[in-house]
Structures are given as C-alpha cells and as structure tokens.
Write a structure and sequence with these properties.
Order of helices and strands: HHHEEEEE
Distance between the termini: 170 Å
Strand content: 5-15%
Shape: elongated
Number of helices: 3
Radius of gyration: 55 Å
Number of strands: 5
Structural class: mainly alpha
Helix content: 40-55%
Largest sheet: 3 strands, mixed
Amino acid sequence: MPTHPRESDRAASDPVEPVPEGAVRPSRGDSPQPGPPPRPEAAHDEPGPDAAGPAAAEDEYTTAIQELEDRWRRALADLDNLRKRHARELERERAAERSRTAAAFLPVLDNLELALTHAGADPGAIVEGIGAVRDQAVNVLELLGYPRHAETGVAFDPARHEVVGVVQDPDAPPGTVVEVLRPGYGDGERQLRPAAVTVAKRE
C-alpha cells in the first residue's frame, strides 16, 4: 500500500530560510527574478517641484516692476494735469482781480471826464472837482489794500520812506520828514511804492 508523505516530512525535506520579522515571505514557486539594482541617480532624472522656482520668481519680479512703472506713469500724468489745472485757475483769478480793480477806477474816470466837460465854466469849481476826484481815487486804493502815506513831521522810516533830499530846518527835529514830494501807497509786503521825502538834517 503506497504511503503519501506527510506535511511534516515534506517540510523537513524542503528547508526554508528564516524570514526576518515583519518581512513578507514570497509564495512558493514565485521566487523573485533577478534584475539590475536601481540606480541611485534615478530619483534625480525627473525635475522636482522646485525646479521652476527661479523662473517663477523672475516672472513675479517682472510683473511687480511693470506694475510700479504703470503707477509711476499714472502719478506723473496726474501731477501734470494738476499743474495745468492750477495754472488755469491762477490765470482766471488774475483776470478776475484785474477786472475788479479796473471796475473800481471807472467812477474816478467818469468824474474826471465830467470835470473836463465843465472846464470853461468856473476855474474854482474845476479845481475843487479835481480835488474830489483825487480823494476818490485815494479811497479806491485804500479799499484795495494800499493806503496813502503823505504825513510830515513823523520820524523817518526806511521801510516807508525814500530820502530824496536833506534840509536844514531848525523847527524840525533831526531825522524827521519835512516835506513829502511823492506820496507812498501800501504797507509792508503790500507796498506799491515808498513815499519820496526830504528829511531834516542831523547836527
């Protein structure tokens, strides 16, 4: 009667190499096929995620520079428009101020023409009329911010007076205005012109 080998006998006749703990034992009949070992540089054949880093950074810098240039050009255009608008507004204000000043003197011209119309009637009335027109013109200048200065007997002030002569006057203290030859108008930075005066001589 033929006998079949038992599993224990088969295991004894087919020794198996011990497998380390945690390793997977290959199935019988599926022994691994020999092949070339993996190349160490195989992991470096394909570009990694950081391979495009420099190019991407350069694109970002280029985009940022273009944006800054666009903002700079827009700022220059806005500044140029502001300058032109300011120049136009300034010219309009100058024209309006000249118009107001000229209009303020129109009544003075009207009275001068009226005085010339009656020049042959009464010489005394003509002189009186011209004096009134002069006072009217002085009032207009004062309203415009340029008061008249024609005072005598006051101390000489180089900011308001221009000396055109020095005289000996025993009745006037030295350094005082004796005579005003040409009135001055305005004060300080708003001075149209200083008064031309003669001053008492200092001893």
